[in-house]
Write a structure and sequence with these properties.
Layout: H1 7-14, E1 16-17, E2 26-31, E3 37-42, E4 46-49, E5 64-68, H2 75-84, E6 96-97, E7 108-115, E8 118-119, E9 128-135, E10 138-150, E11 153-164, E12 169-180, E13 185-192, E14 195-202, E15 205-211, E16 223-229, E17 235-238, E18 244-251, E19 256-265, H3 273-281, H4 285-293
Antiparallel strand pairs: 1-2, 2-3, 3-4, 4-5, 5-6, 7-8, 7-13, 9-10, 10-11, 11-12, 12-19, 13-18, 14-15, 15-16, 16-19, 17-18
Length: about 300
C-alpha cells in the first residue's frame, strides 16, 4: 500500500482537482471546510465520501450521492451556499441536493470484505487522498483507508476512482491489502436498500429505482436511480438481512477488484426507471474504458 502523504503536502499538492479552464466538466477534491468530505462530480453525477472529522458522527465507507441538474459542476457552489449563506444542500435551490441516506451502510456503491455473510467495515473513514491525473474531462484519484483489525485478520484499502464527463458511471478499482490466515477473501460492493419502487438484477449488475431516502429537509423531489456493475462477479443478490443488494467476488491481497457505480435523478438526464434499467442492461465495460482513455 502506498505511504500516506503528510497532511500539508496532501492539502497543497494532491487534494484537489479543478482544471484551469472556463467550464471544467469534472472535479474532485478534499473538503476540509465540511468535516473532511471528499467530493467528486462530472456534468451528470456527484458523490462524496466521509472523512476523519466526521468519524464521531458517521463512521462509514458508504458512498453518498447528490442529485443535480445536468450540464455543469455544482458541488462547490452547494458547499459555499451551505457554509456561508445558510442554504442547506439538503434542499434543492435550483442545482440539485443531497437527498440520500448513508449511515453505516455501503450507501451508493462502496465495497467491504465479508465473512460468514457479515460486512467487515473499516474502523476509520478515508484518511488520505491523491489526485493521480486530471484533464478537463477526466479525473482519477485514490482514497486511502488505513489498516483495520477484523475477525479475519488485518485489512487496508486503496480505493481508486475514474470519473469522466458525460457518463452516469464511475469506475472503481479497489485494492485490498490483507494480513491473515485466509488464502483469499470475499469483497462485496453494493447498494443500501431504501424506499424501493423497482429493481433489476442480472449476473454482475444491480439497479435500483427508489424515492429519496433523506427527506428531513424537504419532501421527496423526483426519483433516484442507483447501480453497481461488477464484471465477473461470483454472486449477485441480497444480504441475509436484506438491507443491501450486493455483487461479490473472491480476491487476494493486493489484487484489484474493478466495478462501476452509477446514479441518476428523474429530474436530470434519465427520467424514468425504464430508461435507467436500459442504461444498465446496455452498459459495456470495455467500451466505457476505451472512451475514458481518450479523455
Amino acid at each position: 500500500m502506498k505511504k500516506i502523504i503528510p497532511a500539508l503536502m496532501a492539502a497543497v499538492a494532491l487534494a484537489s482537482c479543478s482544471p484551469k479552464i472556463t467550464e471544467p466538466m469534472v472535479m474532485a477534491r478534499e473538503v476540509p471546510e465540511r468535516m473532511d468530505d471528499f467530493i467528486w462530480e462530472n456534468d451528470l453525477i456527484c458523490y462524496r465520501a466521509y472523512g476523519k472529522a466526521l468519524e464521531k458522527e458517521t463512521l462509514s465507507p458508504g458512498l453518498d450521492l447528490w442529485v443535480k441538474i445536468p450540464g455543469k459542476l455544482v458541488a462547490d457552489k452547494m458547499y459555499k451556499d451551505a457554509l456561508q449563506n445558510g442554504k442547506s444542500y439538503h434542499k434543492n435551490w435550483g442545482d440539485g441536493k443531497d437527498c440520500y441516506k448513508v449511515g453505516k451502510t455501503l450507501g451508493a456503491g462502496a465495497s467491504v470484505p465479508m465473512a460468514d455473510g457479515r460486512f467487515l467495515f473499516p474502523k476509520t473513514n478515508w484518511r488520505s487522498s491523491e489526485i493521480v491525473s486530471c484533464t478537463p474531462e477526466k479525473v482519477v484519484f485514490i482514497l486511502h483507508y488505513p489498516w483495520w483489525e477484523s475477525e479475519m485478520g488485518r485489512f487496508a484499502l486503496d480505493k481508486k476512482f475514474t470519473v469522466v464527463a458525460g457518463s452516469c458511471f464511475c469506475m472503481v478499482e479497489d485494492t485490498y491489502f490483507y494480513e491473515g490466515d485466509a488464502a483469499g477473501f470475499t469483497v462485496a460492493a453494493g447498494i443500501a436498500r431504501h424506499n424501493i419502487d423497482s429493481e433489476s438484477s442480472a449476473e454482475g449488475s444491480l439497479a435500483i429505482w427508489e424515492a429519496a431516502s433523506d427527506q428531513g429537509a424537504e419532501p421527496e423531489d423526483g426519483m433516484l436511480g442507483v447501480a453497481v456493475i461488477m464484471p465477473g462477479a461470483q454472486d449477485t443478490g441480497l444480504t441475509k438481512d436484506k438491507k443491501h443488494s450486493i455483487c461479490s467476488k473472491t480476491v487476494k491481497s493486493g489484487e484489484t477488484l474493478t466495478y462501476w457505480i452509477g446514479s441518476c435523478w428523474s429530474k436530470g438526464s434519465i427520467k424514468t426507471k425504464e430508461e435507467w434499467f436500459k442504461a444498465i442492461d446496455s452498459f459495456d465495460a470495455v467500451r466505457w474504458k476505451k472512451a475514458a482513455s481518450k479523455k
